[in-house]
Design brief:
The protein has helices spanning 13-23, 30-39, 83-97, 112-120, and strands spanning 3-7, 43-50, 53-63, 66-74, 102-107, 124-129, 138-144. The protein is an alpha+beta fold and 158 residues long. It has a single domain, classed as Gcn5-related N-acetyltransferase (GNAT) (Aminopeptidase), CATH 3.40.630.30. A hairpin with an 8-residue loop joins strand 6 (124-129) and strand 7. The longest helix has 15 residues, at 83-97. It is globular and about 40 Å long. The termini are far apart. The model is unreliable at 149-158 (pLDDT under 50).
């Protein structure tokens, strides 16, 4: 069965909420995602499908020439099979199509699997947002979008 990445639809929200609830301690509701899809012009969300089954999702906000990864999650059964990488690649591509020159995110310092994925995609840690999560700081990571004009330096030592 092949993996496809496509735009999230309201029909996907039940599956997205199921994955969200199993992936995060403080999950968004299906209504939160519905609001993002319908009311937020900055928001762009995608799902990963294996056949008809939604196995992951992710989202970005694009504001002028910057994208921000708002969420990324994969169903536990489908982790470590390239789903997260395919979603992240699709979201970076969509960011580029929308004119973004760089993309940022926050991740728990304790989330080693996510940090490893982000590093493989060229994200570099640039700082901490204190108390970003209720129980932990948020590690802020950035990466340039290849070929974009006005790229920033990704080197954290500079």
């Amino acid at each position: 069965m092949s993996l496809t990445i496509e735009q999230m639809k309201t029909a996907d929200l039940e599956d997205v909420a199921r994955i969200e609830k199993s992936a995060f301690e403080q999950p968004w509701t299906a209504q939160s995602f519905r609001s993002e899809l319908i009311k937020n012009d900055l928001a762009h969300y995608m799902v990963a499908r294996m056949g008809e089954r939604v196995v992951g999702y992710g989202g970005i906000w694009v504001i002028f020439n910057e994208a921000h990864l708002t969420t990324l999650a994969v169903d536990k059964v489908y982790r470590r099979r390239g789903v997260g990488a395919a979603l992240l690649s699709g979201l970076i591509e969509r960011s580029s199509q929308l004119g973004a020159r760089r993309i940022s995110l926050e991740v728990r310092p304790s989330n080693h699997a996510a940090r490893t994925l982000y590093k493989k995609f060229g994200f570099n840690a640039r700082g901490l947002r204190k108390h970003y999560y209720t129980d932990e700081d948020g590690l802020v990571m950035f990466r340039n979008i290849p070929g974009a004009a006005g790229e920033i330096d990704n080197d954290p030592a500079s």
